[in-house]
Prior knowledge:
This protein is mainly α. The protein has five helices and no strands. The chain is elongated, with a radius of gyration of 24 Å. It holds the Pfam family TraB_PrgY_gumN.
Amino acid sequence: MDDVDMMTLVIQEMSKEFPTLMETLLHERDQYMSSTLLKIASEHSSVVAVVGKGHMNGIKKHWKQPVMVKDLLLIPSQKPTSFVKILTSVGVAAAGVAIVTGIYFGCKK
Length: 109
């Protein structure tokens, strides 16, 4: 198995395990690089670009495809944290403090 096949397998497995991470680190970057390289190539007679092996297939896939670069440059807004999550976090923290305090005072006797 050569390096390209191994890289493809790693990308496929990472995409299954961490889809959001791979979307940002790989797929969105592929789209951005493809769009940027295409723009530069349309303005110059020759262009040389050095990219990571893991981005080659994605750049080829998105070549001459419409890419909304503005959307790629936006940082997604965070979802508001629910009251239940806050209450749960406070409860877990309080329980942790109670346990640690109990252990501390129990060992002190």
